[in-house]
Amino acid sequence: MDQELNMRFMEVAMRHVQEGQSFLNNKGIELDMHDLQPALEMLMQVMSEAYEMGYEDAKENK
Q1: InterPro entries recorded for this chain (predicted)?
Q2: Rounded to 10 degrees, what is the CA torsion of 7, 49, 60, 5?
Q3: Are the C-beta atoms of 41 and 9 separated by less than 8 Å?
Q4: pLDDT at residue 49 in the model
């Protein structure tokens, strides 16, 4: 994956970390940033796959 795109995905993910952490805390699940790292990596993979799907769809519908 393009490093610049990866950084943009990380910026998006980081904008929502506090919201996600608050949601988990309200559910009684306390996690620190170290614990959240695997979830962030999974989110990055999801965003990458969604981007690729959109990219392929856009190419097909030109």
Answers
A1: ComZ
A2: 0
A3: no
A4: 92
Number of independent structural domains in the chain: 1
Query: pLDDT under 70 in the chain at which residues?
Result: 1
In this prediction, residue 26 carries a pLDDT of 95
Domain hosting residue 42, numbered range = 3-60
Cα diameter, the chain: 48
Cα distance between residue 17 and residue 8, in whole Å: 15
pTM over 0.70: no
Residue 55 contacts by C-beta under 8 Å, 6 or more apart in sequence? none
What pLDDT shows up at residue 27? Answer: 95
